[in-house]
Design a protein that fits this description.
Structural class: alpha/beta
Number of strands: 21
Strand content: 15-25%
Bound molecules: adenosine-5'-triphosphate, 6-O-phosphono-beta-D-fructofuranose, magnesium ion
Radius of gyration: 24 Å
Number of helices: 14
Shape: elongated
Largest sheet: 13 strands, mixed
Length: 534
C-alpha cells in the first residue's frame, strides 16, 4: 500500500469553522467501586469543540494524530472492493456532521453536531498492520454476538484485516485469560445465538493492566461493547493509551438492554427485549382473564430507567398499570395503587400489571429495613419489587374475604435479554459494527458509535457517560402510557407542577428541544438531571 506523509485534508477537521475550545479538559470518568484507574491526569478526556456559523458547534472526537501527528495515511482498500465500487459516493465527506437536534424553529441556533460515521477516503492503518481485539462487558443483551460477528467479518471483508482476537469474560479477561482467535469462519453462525460467545463480567476493570495487555500483544484497535459502566471504563483506557502515546484506536459500542445510555437513539437489543416481553404480558393477561378477579403481575428489566416496561406496555394494550422507577407510586389510601386495583377488578374482572425492576425501591426498602448492597461493578442491587408487590396485593385482599382474587406473578427477567436478536436488531448491529470499524481505520479514537436521529455518528465518551437516559414523565410518551392503561399518575397537582418547572429549567440548560417526547427513537429529554430520549 502506498504511504503518504503527514495528515491529509480529508481526515482533518473542517477548514471553515473556528476552533471554539479545543482540548478543554473534561473530568476523567470516575472509577467505580473496584475499578482501578491509572493516573491519567492531564491526559484526561479533552473536549474538541469547533464552532461555525449561526451557532453551529461540532463536538468532535479525538484522533490518533492529536498526539501522534506524524502518522502516515493510506488509500482506503474499500475503493478496490467490487461490492462497494458501484456506490456513488461511498466515502463520507470529511465535513459531514450529524445534528443532535432535529426539531427547530426558524430562529433556532444550529446547535450541537457530531462527526458523521462512515468510511473515509484515507485510512491510518494498513491491512496487515491491524491487530484488533473485541471485548463484551456488563449484562447480556440481544445482539452482542451479531456485533462481534460483523466486526470480524467487516474488518476482514472491507479492510483485509485477518488478525482479530476476542477477549474472554469482560475487562478482567485482558489480564487473566488467553485471547480467542476470531475469523469469519469461526463467527459465521454466532448471530443465531443469544448471549456472547466471548463471555462477559462485571467488575475487574484495572486500567493499567488492561493497557499493558494491549501494549504487550500489540493490539492497535480495541472494540469495547458494553453499557454505561463499560463506556466509562473505555474512556479511561483511551486516556491511558494516549498517555502512553500508543497507536491504538479505542472504540466503544453502546450496549444496554435498559436503553439507559444518554444521547443515543436507542440501544441494540431493546426492540428484541420489548418483543420478548410481550409473551410474558400475554401470559399474565390470559391467566388473569381466566380467573375470578385475576391479577397478572409481570416484572421486567429496567434498573433505573423504565423504557422496557413503558414500551412493552404500549405495545401490548393489555396492561392496566405500568410502574417504572421514574414515576413514584404509593399503595395505600385514596388515589393509591391498591384502591385502583380494586376499582379495575370491579369494572373489568381482571387486570395485568407491568412493573420495572427498579420501581418502588424506596417503598420496599422502607418496609424491609434493608441495607444497600452492590454488584462487582458498583451497581446497586435491587430488591424484588415483583414479589413484594404481589405479596402486598395478596395481603390487602386477604383482609376482604368477600373479594377473592387470584394472582399470578411472572418474572421473565433474564428471558428477555438472553434471547437472540430479532431481524431489525441484527441489521442495526451490523451497521453499528461497520460504523465502529470505519472510525477506527480512519484513525479516530476515544469515541462511541451510535445513531443520532437515524444517522450514525461518532460521539466523545464523556457525552454518554455524564448522565443516564431516563423516561421523562412530563413528556408525551408517558402520557400515552397513562392514556392507554387509564391508571392514576400517583402524583399530586403540586408534584406535577414542580416537575414541569424542573423540566423547563433542564430544557433551557440541558437540551435544545422545543418540546419533549419520551421515546427511544429520538434523543433529548431530561429527568433527575439526566438526559432522556424523545
Ligand atoms: N467508572 C468506571 N471506570 C472504569 N470501569 C468501570 C466503571 N464503571 C464500570 N466499569 C467497568 O465496566 C464493566 C461493566 O460495567 P457494569 O457492570 O456497570 O455494566 P454496564 O457496562 O453498565 O452494562 P449494563 O449495566 O447494561 O449491564 C465492569 O467490568 C466494570 O468494572
Ligand atoms: O443479574 P445481572 O447480570 O447483574 O444483571 C441485572 C441487571 O442488568 C441489566 O439487565 C442491565 O443493566 C439490568 O436491567 C439488570 O438490573
Ligand atoms: Mg449499566
Amino acid at each position: 500500500m502506498e504511504a503518504v506523509g503527514v495528515a491529509p485534508a480529508p481526515v482533518a477537521a473542517p477548514v471553515k469553522k473556528k476552533l471554539l475550545d479545543l482540548e478543554k479538559p473534561f473530568p476523567a470518568a470516575a472509577a467505580a467501586n473496584g475499578a482501578k484507574a491509572s493516573p491519567a491526569g492531564k491526559w484526561a478526556m479533552k473536549k474538541k469543540l469547533v464552532g461555525g456559523d449561526a451557532g453551529y458547534v461540532l463536538e468532535d472526537v479525538p484522533h490518533l494524530t492529536d498526539y501522534l501527528p506524524e502518522l502516515p495515511t493510506f488509500p482506503n482498500p474499500l475503493q478496490d472492493n467490487p461490492a462497494y465500487s458501484v456506490v456513488k459516493q461511498y466515502f463520507v465527506n470529511p465535513d459531514d456532521t450529524v445534528t443532535q437536534k432535529i426539531v427547530v424553529h426558524k430562529t433556532s441556533a444550529r446547535g450541537t453536531h457530531f462527526r458523521r460515521a462512515g468510511p473515509r477516503q484515507r485510512v491510518y492503518f494498513q491491512s496487515d498492520e491491524v491487530n484488533a481485539a473485541i471485548v463484551t462487558c456488563g449484562g447480556l443483551c440481544p445482539g452482542l454476538n451479531t456485533v462481534v460477528r460483523e466486526l470480524v467479518c467487516g474488518l476482514y471483508d472491507m479492510y483485509g484485516v485477518t488478525s482479530v482476537v476476542g477477549i474472554e469474560g469482560g475487562y478482567k479477561g485482558f489480564y487473566s485469560k488467553n485471547t480467542i482467535p476470531l475469523t469469519p469462519k469461526s463467527v459465521n453462525d454466532i448471530h443465531k445465538r443469544g448471549g456472547t460467545v466471548l463471555g462477559t463480567s462485571r467488575g475487574g476493570h484495572d486500567t493499567a493492566k488492561i493497557v499493558d495487555c494491549l501494549q504487550d500483544r500489540g493490539i492497535n484497535q480495541v472494540y469495547i461493547i458494553g453499557g454505561d459502566g463499560t463506556q466509562k471504563g473505555a474512556s479511561v483506557i483511551y486516556e491511558e493509551v494516549r498517555r502512553r502515546g500508543l497507536k491504538c484506536s479505542v472504540v466503544g459500542i453502546p450496549k444496554t438492554i435498559d436503553n439507559d445510555i444518554a444521547v443515543i437513539d436507542k440501544s441494540f437489543g431493546f426492540d428484541t427485549a420489548v418483543e420478548e416481553a410481550q409473551r410474558a404480558i400475554n401470559a399474565a393477561h390470559v391467566e388473569a382473564e381466566s380467573a375470578e378477579n385475576g391479577i397478572g403481575v409481570v416484572k421486567l428489566m429496567g434498573r433505573n430507567s423504565g423504557f422496557i416496561a413503558m414500551y412493552a406496555t404500549l405495545a401490548s394494550r393489555d396492561v392496566d398499570c405500568c410502574l417504572i422507577p421514574e414515576s413514584p407510586f404509593y399503595l395505600e389510601g385514596k388515589g393509591g395503587l391498591l384502591e385502583f386495583i380494586e376499582r379495575r377488578l370491579k369494572d373489568n374482572g381482571h387486570m395485568a400489571i407491568v412493573v420495572a425492576e427498579g420501581a418502588g425501591q424506596d417503598l420496599i426498602a422502607k418496609s424491609m429495613n434493608f441495607v444497600d448492597t452492590q454488584d462487582a461493578s458498583g451497581n446497586k442491587l435491587l430488591l424484588d419489587v415483583g414479589l413484594w408487590l404481589s405479596q402486598k396485593i395478596k395481603d390487602h385482599f386477604k383482609k376482604k374475604p368477600h373479594f377473592p382474587i387470584t394472582l399470578k406473578y411472572i418474572d421473565p427477567t433474564y428471558m428477555i435479554r438472553a434471547v437472540k436478536s430479532n431481524a431489525s436488531d441484527n441489521v442495526y448491529c451490523t451497521l453499528l459494527a461497520h460504523s465502529a470499524l470505519h472510525g477506527a481505520m480512519a484513525g479516530y479514537t476515544g469515541f462511541t458509535v451510535t445513531p443520532i436521529n437515524g444517522r450514525h455518528a461518532y460521539i466523545p465518551f464523556y457525552r454518554i457517560t455524564e448522565k443516564q437516559n431516563k423516561v421523562v414523565i412530563t413528556d408525551r410518551m408517558w402520557a400515552r402510557v397513562l392514556c392507554s392503561t387509564n391508571q392514576p399518575c400517583f402524583l399530586s397537582h403540586e408534584d406535577v407542577e414542580n416537575m414541569k418547572h424542573d423540566d423547563d429549567e433542564h430544557h433551557l440548560h440541558n437540551t435544545q428541544l422545543l418540546e419533549g417526547e419520551s421515546s427511544p427513537m429520538k434523543n433529548s429529554a431530561k429527568c433527575n438531571g439526566s438526559a432522556a430520549v424523545v
